[in-house]
Predict the structure.
Amino acid sequence: MVSQCNDEKMEIRNWFKGFEKGLERLSPEQRSAFLSECGRNCVNGGTLSVYQQLYERAQGDMDTFFQMANELSGVRGGGVEKGRVYYSLQCLWKEKHFTVTLCHSILRGGTDCEMRIEVEYQ
């Protein structure tokens, strides 16, 4: 994508360089508050509805859910340990406690977003 800016061409990647520098100036708390809204918007904009449909088809079973999710284009559940480690959304299993580790993200320079989400059974 190229846009006109003061009669000069500006590529979107140059805009992101400034965006990243701005993020670096924020405190960890400010950055977290800002980016959590970005993440929430991303999920609510499409991912959540897809996962909710899978959740219903899997009847809440996590293993079945991720087997079906792996069949979708653009979704990977690599490294899923049956019954223990999942890449998912907390809102589908409200009764579970999840520990989330961000492996990499587009905003951090990755080509995609990957989170390791571990479910704790009680």
